[in-house]
Amino acid sequence: MLCRQLLRCARAWQPLLATSTTRSASILSALNSSPVLISSNNDIYTNLALEHWLYTNIRFNQDGDGKSNESVGIHFNHPILLIWTDEPSLVLGRHQNPWVEANLGLVNKLGIKVARRHSGGGCVYHDENNINISVIGERKLFENRQENLRFLANILDKKYGIKCEPNKRHDLIHSATGLKMSGSAAKLGRHNSYHHFTLLVDTDKEIMKAAIREKQQDFIKTNSSLSTRSSVINLNELKPGLTTNQVISDLAQAYGEHYCKGISEQPSRKSKTEGDEDDLASLTRIKQDLMDWNWIYGMTPRFKMERVVNLVDRGKDMSASFRVHVDKAVFKGFEIECDEPSISAYSDRFKHLVNTSFNYKDAMVNVVKMLQVDDNNLQSLTGYEQIFATHLLQMIHEANF
């Protein structure tokens, strides 16, 4: 009986967070019937917020021993599976640099959203035909990543005759072609963990390829996590006519059957003095944080841009290394290294840019102002300073386009 309830709920596609008025009670109600949640919202920030809310607000009882932290409002004896798709979005790993990973100019022009998730790993492109699957559970679930991918591979083989296998990087690789079908990342916390992975059904590979940079730009030096570029294949290319909705339905049914076996009791919600409004407010705060420019761009690890500038001084050819330091998406310093000390000193003219934003529009405007010569301005740039300012403009532009 319980299994049938789980499958009906999975097939029903619970409309989680479909509107701003949806309360977290609908999430808990769905979880009371099924271990599978399917979000009807295709906003990347909402779906990442829901995933993080589940990860931080639920405790999972190891081996169903019934032990739980009484200070935590919700606990379960089984993992939760969250499935969703997004509007076109570019999602960075927790420790990545968007100016290294993405063609931001094109991304902004096409209206593709940029997000930074809480897990590590590489940059990925989402759209309505790239399924996102997140397995959320207790801490030891982190060790089951290969098992999660093998389970998915078995579903694809059984349902569609598509054979694939996980590699050491926790990608899912199509056996016949060697092409990537799924990439994954994970987060490990004190109590919980989650493993989330994509599944390409009919993603626009041309936009994906254009939005994600093919290789790192030489003038940007960084220790941020770098993505590994791979050739990919859609399920639809292997089984024409296969739709995203069909795959989601089949995944929900298979996972519902799988997790149903281990459920010994209905999950419960501990009594709290706060109401569901507090949970909704928490979800809203998480979403707002994920949308914040200071999170998406400001959490970028420190990096520098460096360029060799060729100069002529009193008929003598020379060169100077021009370095621009950026931390948390803010200019932090400028260096000019040259055998001629007087040229190195020109770096002082850029000091007023320190602690200003590396946001493309703001940065370009601030540097252009330096180049605007005013006859009444005794501080207008010299010829060498104009050269360095022009190179700075070029680096800012190339970092974005």
Automatic annotation (TrEMBL):
Residues 75-263 form the BPL/LPL catalytic domain. Pathway: Protein modification; protein lipoylation via exogenous pathway; protein N(6)-(lipoyl)lysine from lipoate: step 2/2. The keyword RNA-binding does not apply. One of its GO terms (biological process) is protein lipoylation. PROSITE patterns: BPL_LPL_CATALYTIC. GO terms for molecular function: lipoyltransferase activity. It comes from the Eukaryota. InterPro entries: aa-tRNA-synth_II/BPL/LPL (IPR045864), BPL_LPL_catalytic (IPR004143), LipoylTrfase_LipoateP_Ligase (IPR004562). One of its GO terms (cellular component) is mitochondrion. Gene3D superfamilies: Bira Bifunctional Protein, Domain 2 (3.30.930.10), CO dehydrogenase flavoprotein, C-terminal domain (3.30.390.50). The keyword Transferase applies. Signal peptide: none annotated. Keywords: Transferase. SUPFAM superfamilies: Class II aaRS and biotin synthetases. Belongs to the LplA family. PANTHER family: LIPOATE-PROTEIN LIGASE (PTHR12561), LIPOYLTRANSFERASE 1, MITOCHONDRIAL (PTHR12561:SF3). This is Lipoyltransferase 1, mitochondrial. The lineage of its organism: Eukaryota, Metazoa, Ecdysozoa, Arthropoda, Chelicerata. The gene is Lipt1.
